[in-house]
Every structure is written in C-alpha cells, then in structure tokens.
Amino acid sequence: MTGAAADLARAAKAFPTLLTIGFAEVVAYRAEFLVWILTTNMPLVMLALWHAVAEDGAVGRFDQPKFTAYYLAILVVRLVTSNWMAWQMSMEVRDGTLSAKLLRPIHPLYAFAADHLSALPMRLLYVSPIVVVLLVTSWGQIAGHDARVALVLGPALIGAWLLMFFSMVLLGTVAFYVDSAMGAFELWLAVHAIVSGYLIPLELLPPWARTVTDVLPFRYMLAFPAETLVGLVAPAAALRQLVIQWVYVVATAAAAIAAWRAGVRRFAAFGG
Amino acid sequence: MSGPMIDVAALSKSYRVHKRAPGIAAALRSVFRRRYETVKAVEELSFRIAEGERVGFLGPNGAGKTTTLKVLAGLLHPTSGSVRVGGHVPHTRDPLFLQLITLVMGQKQQLLWDLPPSDTYAMNRAIYDIPRAQAEDTIRTLTELLEIGDLIRKPTRQLSLGERMKCELVAALLHRPRVLFLDEPTIGLDVSMQAKMRAFIRDYNERFGAAVLLTSHYMDDVVALCPRVVVIDRGRLIYDGDLRELVRRVRPDKHVTIRLSAPVAAADLARLGKVVSADAGQAVLAVPAAQASAVVRDALAALPIVDLTIEEPPLEDVMRELFVTRAPDPTRTTLS
After folding, report:
1. Of A45, B10, B238, B325, whose CB neighbour count within 10 A is largest?
2. Given 3.30.70.270, 3.30.830.10, 3.90.1170.50, 3.40.50.300, which CATH number is that of B6-12+42-247?
C-alpha cells in the first residue's frame, strides 16, 4: 500500500474510536456547545425582517411561507455544516499544541475531521426542533416539488460539509505564515455572509451579483443545499450545481492539503 | 538494528524572528518596515546515540536543547545537516517513525483535558493500532510502576500536576516506543515524585531497551539516569562523553566534608585545602582529587573529627562553572 492509502486505512481503522472520544468531549462541553448554537441566530433575525417586507406582497417569488422555509433551511444547513477549524488551527499553531497531533501516526487532518464529525449527533439533537418547525410550517413548500431534487440533498449536504471543512483548513493554514488566521477568517466570514445566501436569498440580488455568486464557491456551502432542502431548485439545475459543488470540494481539498504541507514546514512548534 | 539509533550530523536550525524596540513609535515603524533577526538556535551539532543508551542533554536556557529535540521528533525541519532516528528522516514524519518515538515535554500535555486519562489511552490505542490485550497489559504494568491505579478514570483537569505527569507518561509510552525524548519530565514535581519518575524511566529503559535522550534542569535526574551527557551551549556542542569525566575536567577537585566535635581555627582548615564553607560543627574543603587521601590522613591526625565524607562537587556547580567561563557569541544572531 502506498503512503496515502496506508494513511487512509490507518485513519479509517481508528476513526470509530476517534468519533467516540470526540463525542465524549462534546458532551463534556455541552453547555458551551448549546450557547454556541444559540449564537447562530442571524437567519431568524433575517426571517423576521423579510417576513415584514413580504407582508404587502411577494418579493420576487418569495412570499412569507417561502421566506420562512428558506431561512429555517439556511439555519439547519448552517448548523450541520459549519465548523471551527480555522479558529482551532489558528490557536494550535500559535500556542504549539498542534505538536501533539503532528507526533501521532495518523494525519492531523483526519483527527480534526473526526473532532468535527463527532459533534454532529449533538448538533442534530439541537437542530431537530428547528427541523420539526420547518416541516410543520413549510410542508407544502417541501412536498410540492419534484421528488428527484430530494436525491440531490444527501450528496449536497456532504459536499457542503466537506467544502466548509477544507475552506476552513485553507484559511487555518494562514496561521503558519502570520501566526494567527483570525483576521483572514473574519474577512472570509464577512464575504461569506453576503454571497452564500446566509443573509439574503441569492436570487434577490441584482443579476450581475447573481452571476458572481454562481461562480464563487460560497453558495455551494449554504444556499445550494438549503434551496435543495426546500425545493427551490429544479432537478436539472440541482444536478448541475451538485457537479459544480463537488468540483469545488476536490479543488479546495487539493489546495488545503498543499497549503498544509507547505505550512507545516514553517511550523515553529512555539510554546514548548 | 545495526548502527546508531539516533544519528545527528552537522545539524543546524535557524529561526527568523520579528524584532522591534518597545514603545508606540517603534510599533508604528514596524507597521511599515519590519526588522527580522535570524537566530541560530543550533549550529553544526553532531552526536550519535546507541539503542538502549541513556543520555543527558544539557545546556543553559536557550542553548538549543528543545529545538534539537523537536527536530529529532520530526516537528521541525532542519535548516541544514542530517538527522536519522531509527533509520528514518524525522521531518518526513513517516508513521513507522512516529510509532518508534515519543516526546514528553514537562510543560505540554497530550492528555484530553476534560476526559479521564483512560480515554486518551483508548484514543492512542486506536491511533497506534495497538492490539487490545497488549494495550491493557501495558497500561496495567505502567500504572502499577507509577502507582496511579484508579486515577486514570478521573477527569484530567481534576488531577494534581504530579498525577497528570505520571498519567502523561503512560500515554506517551503506551505504544512502547524505542526512543524516548524527555524534555524536563520532572519539572514541577516534588522530590519524592521526581525519584519515582527517575526509577520508572530507568526501569522502562532496561525493560524495553529504549534509547533515552533527557533534558533536565534538575541535575539529580541526570546523575541518576545518564552515564553519558551531551552538553551544548549557544547551539554548539561543547562536550560529549562520560558524566564523571566531565565533572573531573571542569572541577578536578573533590569535596571533603568534615564534622567536628569542637571548633577549630580557620588557619588549620586552610592548611588542608580550599575552604568552601565552615562553621562551628562542620567544614567543607575542596582538594585536588590526587591529594584527597593525603588530606584525609592529615585531617584525621590533626582535627577533632566525628565524621568525614569525600564527594564529587555537585553537578549544578560543575555546569555553572562550565557555562560562566564561556564568552557570549556575537555571531549567533544577524539582523535583516
């Protein structure tokens, strides 16, 4: 077996234990975790805002029920796919705690991925009431569309998770060069909020801006799976966007791994 | 394996560090023009360590010890020179290499803070792919040797420093590494805990034939564990050899401690050797090693002696003398 394949096999074998331990850590931090979840409330603020705007009539094809469905879907996708890799890498590079991961015989990115995946059950637990509200308030919206779109939803959510993960790794590698990636992360967050569909449904943007957001990777992290979840995309468009999303996943993963390799050469293991 | 377990040849490691003067003006200037300093942490360092050998790695603060250990453990890329550990190039971090070594840093820990150490052990068992029976056997053996028992089931954050350090050692040794890099493993521990830790490291070394490279500011650690020492100062090798020979070279005298039944005149003591300390009941004399027996004979004949011991000077004194006599090296940093 080659180095990368052997790495993957070793990581796959260790993964169930890593997930179990990661879950135990999430449970240990459950109160803090809940507070963090509660801070992700911007889609609800935006929902209230657009709900008021749509009181006198639909905005584009968005009437009040569509806004409700859209923002609840955005909230669900955001809570399921977001991660704190850039923050974690920034901290671990800065204070040298990354050393412990570098000394283990599985690639640190597998360990980071396990950390984040192990938080999913707890996230789903917190997300489930929102899903119930979404189903109750928007069932007509969700069930009234082509069922083939639902087939895209699973791969779209997995793609969104991976795209977010590798984007955050890429941002986190900035810490190898300037000691902290938090400035780059804040900038990324500001851009992401506008062009990912987090604050405004992208189809309400001017046509030129929509062209830009279709090309950038951000919509494939959030708006695309959310729109798929509530049936706002036609089957052909959903499939096309899924392909674009996965091209971005592969490209971002390649860039993140290359940046990681280059960055680790500069790692000074401070603090030891 | 044939050949040395650790082979370091002409290793150099430099860092580029941002440098600015204190104050707001300097801070503003540094926004537009940054000054960097290249610090040569390690220069042309060479040594070899055989399988099963225990070696003390000594030097004052900032000498380059930790940097060298990090290069040997694969955390840092050398600037130049070659390093091999167990036949592997460390900075490639081949999983086979990482299974061969462990790095224990007294001020750092790998234990999961909010979970019991037993969870860290479970994680390491999975990561190192250790068969369950072997892992359980190793944990049982190590916890017995370190007398930690049920502590491994308490959350790490609730353990004392000494307990954490012992649990940390179990985590670091679970995969039975054949090379131990120990950086201040007894820092912050009380005297009895230090003694237990030393006994444990020696036992592990003898049981598994592991090579040990140890840095410590507690010279008792070095005396108890390391027949050989590698000494560096300002990144350069200044001694590599037998510990007792180093002591003889730097401080060729022995300390003769005399307990007296009655006060004696200072001049009577000075006639026998250099008086290191003296009070009414006890005096310590420094005498050349070759004359020690003659001095003892004369002292017994001339003074009211209750007890008398002959010792090497403390290693702390030897190291202090070794480093104090060396001049600063202006070429170690360069500005750019």
Report:
1. B238
2. 3.40.50.300
B66 touches chain A (CB under 8 A): yes
* Complex prediction ipTM: 0.82
Contact A18 B127 (CB under 8 A): yes
CA of B162 vs chain A CAs: smallest distance (Å): 19
With beta carbons under 8 A apart, name residues in chain A contacting B70: 99, 269, 272
Helix (H, G, I), strand (E, B) or coil at B274: strand
pTM: 0.83
Residues 172-231 of B with CB under 8 A from A: 183
Q: Taking a C-beta distance cutoff of 8 angstroms, is the pair B311, B297 a contact?
A: no
Alpha helices of chain A — where are they, by DSSP H?
3-28, 30-39, 42-53, 64-81, 85-95, 98-102, 108-117, 120-143, 148-172, 175-178, 182-195, 207-215, 223-229, 235-266
For each of chain A's 272 residues, which pLDDT tens digit applies? 567 788 888 889 999 999 999 999 888 877 777 787 777 778 888 988 998 999 888 888 898 888 998 999 999 999 899 888 999 999 998 888 899 999 999 999 999 999 999 988 888 888 888 888 888 887 777 766 677 777 899 999 999 999 999 999 999 999 888 867 788 888 899 999 999 999 999 999 999 999 999 999 999 999 999 999 888 888 889 999 999 999 999 999 999 999 999 999 888 766 54
Q: Tell me the C-alpha distance between B95 and B252, whole Å.
A: 47
Mutate: best of B16, B30, B65, B75, partner A, most A CBs <10 A: B75
